[in-house]
Amino acid sequence: MSLNDPQWGNRGGDDGGGRRPNQGPPDLEQLWRDLNRRLSGIFDRKRAGGGGDRGEGGGGSRPPVQFNPKFLGGGIGLLLVLVVVVWLASGFYIVDASQRGLVLQFGRYKESTESGLRWRLPYPIQAHELVNVSGVRTLEIGYRGSEKNKVLKEALMLTDDENIINIQFAVQYILKDPVEYIFNNRHPDDAVMQVAETSIREIVGKNRMDFVLYEGREQIAVNASKLMQEILDRYKTGILISKVTMQNAQPPEQVQAAFDDAVKASQDRERQKNEGQAYANDVIPKARGTAARLIEEAEGYKQRVIATAEGDASRFRQINVEYAKAPEVTRSRMYLETMQQVYSNTSKVFIDSKGQGNLLYLPLDKLMQAAGAVAASPAGGSPELPVAARTSPAISNEVPPQVVEKTEARSRETLRQRDREAR
């Protein structure tokens, strides 16, 4: 079949609806007629009869329905009812247990609703917003996600001693008033970030670098939390700061090597100071003890000398009194005591050769005991008696060994002379 044939694609009879088979979709007029017929059948309880409404011939095909304004009015009414029902149903909303619902009437806050199924007037009269009031929000300053992903614009800060440090910290906060959080600030989360950065910079700028890096990290976090809460309450943001955590605090990477050297030098200085303090703690108490001992010994020597001098003076006064009473007797006694003291310091035995009698008595047992005591004294380590403590041989009958040897030799010589005279 040629494509130029005027009947090509248009063959076959009508389908009773005003269109031929294989002619494409029906036109809009036919669709409108079918809709009106069906809507009018629902509202008017009328349906077309079997043979009266349909043509007798044509193999059961339906005649086209004429346009009727009554049918049109019934369809629009049903459509309006459906639209109203859907519009009213759009006012239902659900509030979770962790949320609060804020109802707005013509854009102005009207009320807050608790958890559960709620209803409000549909849009555009009323609208609602759901705000999570129990969830903890976390804000990262100086880094994003990991400490390696640094944001130097936020992390670099200046200390009181004009040093630059890199600080990374996290802020956790919750909502205490959802109304203030939604309506008093346009971007409350950005406000929290700016407030946190401002607070940290203010606190770090008032402290030295060593305090920020080491012993003052916890104190800085506590002070920053208080200052942030004061600023947020002043702006009525409805936010409650729960915790501020210092993640990392260190000098910039560009000066890390120099900073490590300074830290090592500081540690060496502290170590040497501790060693010097330990040495001082060991030497100073000993020196103080020695000084105290010397002072006590000097004080004892002083008291002893004074007491000796006072005793000698008292003894002299007493002797003077006795000398005034009996000068000759006192003079003889003093001479004898002096000679006894002098002879007690020598190891010689004096014998009066002019004395009568050939028998010489020497206390050999006492002399041997004295010799043994002198020989045992160096071996036993006992200290030598002072001169003043030694007793006279005439009194104690103790003679050193040299005197004993001389005496024995002299006794043997005397015996030999007696034997010669007897012959």
Characterization of this structure:
Helix content is 51%, strand content 16%. The protein contains 12 helices and 11 strands. The strands form 4 sheets. Strands 6, 9, 10 and 11 form a 4-stranded antiparallel beta sheet that branches. Helix 1 packs across helix 2 (69-89) and helix 8 crosses helix 9 (327-343). The chain starts with 27 loop residues before the first helix and ends with a helix. The model is unreliable at 1-22, 46-63 and 379-405 (pLDDT under 50).
List keywords for this structure.
single chain, 423 residues, alpha+beta, four-stranded antiparallel β-sheet, three-stranded antiparallel β-sheet, 11 strands, 51% helix
Give unreliable regions as ranges. Answer: 1-22, 46-63, 379-405
**If helices are DSSP runs of H or I spanning 4 or more residues, what is the number of helices?**
12
Largest sheet: 4 strands, antiparallel
Shape: rod-shaped
Distance between the termini: 201 Å
Helix content: 40-55%
Beta-strand percentage range = 15-25%
Overall radius of gyration: 65 Å
Seen as an oligomer or otherwise, the chain set is: single chain
Number of strands: 11
**How would you spell out the order of helices and strands?**
HHEEEEEEEEHEEHHHHEHHHHH
Mean pLDDT: 75
* Helix/sheet category: alpha+beta
Summarize the structure.
This protein is an alpha+beta fold and 423 residues long.
Helix and strand arrangement:
Blueprint: H1 28-43, H2 69-89, E1 92-95, E2 99-105, E3 108-113, E4 116-119, E5 126-132, E6 137-141, E7 143-144, E8 146-150, H3 152-155, E9 156-158, E10 164-175, H4 178-183, H5 188-204, H6 209-213, H7 217-234, E11 239-250, H8 256-325, H9 327-343, H10 364-380, H11 393-396, H12 401-422
